[in-house]
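Data card: per-record layout.
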Amino acid sequence: MSSRLNVTPKNLTLRPSRVNAAGWCLYCVTQNCTAARCIDTHARTEWQVCGKCGGSEYVGGHIDPETAHRRCDCFGGLIEVDAADAEVIDMHSYVVTYPASTDAPRNDASGLVPRIDAGPAWDYHADARRIKEEARDRNPELVAYAEAHPNNPSAQWAAYGMQY
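The structure for this 164-residue chain is written out next.
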C-alpha cells in the first residue's frame, strides 16, 4: 500500500483562510470580522496557485529559492480567479423581532420614558478622598509610590484599587 495521496484537481480545493493569522478579514479589512457579506463572498471565490511565486510567497521562489527575496502580493501562495459557477452554501436570512411596546408613560413627543428619582447624586470627589485616605492607612508605601509616579497605572491600581 502506497503512502502517497491521490491528489487530483477534482478532489483538491485551494482556498486561503478568510482572515489572516492576526484575525484581519481579506475583504473588509477589519479584525475578527463575522460579516455575512464577507463570509458569502469568500464562499463564492475560487483560488489557484500563484503564477508569480508558484505558491512560495516569494516572487520567483518556485524557480530559484536562493535568489527569491521579494514578497509576492498573493494570499498564502494563492490568487483568486473568476468563478462563474462556484458551489456555495446559501446563507439563510433571519428576522429580527422586537419586544412589544410597554404601556409605560411617555415623557414627550420623543417617546422617552421619564426618569425616576434615584436619590442624591454621587459625590465622586468625596468618595475619591475617602478611598485615598483608606489606602494611605492600609499601605503608605504603595500610596507614596503611586503619588510619585502619577502616570503609572500599575502603581495606581496597587495603591488604590483603581486609577486616578
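Known properties of this structure: The chain has a mean pLDDT of 77. The chain is about 25% helix and 5% strand.

See the next section for split statistics.
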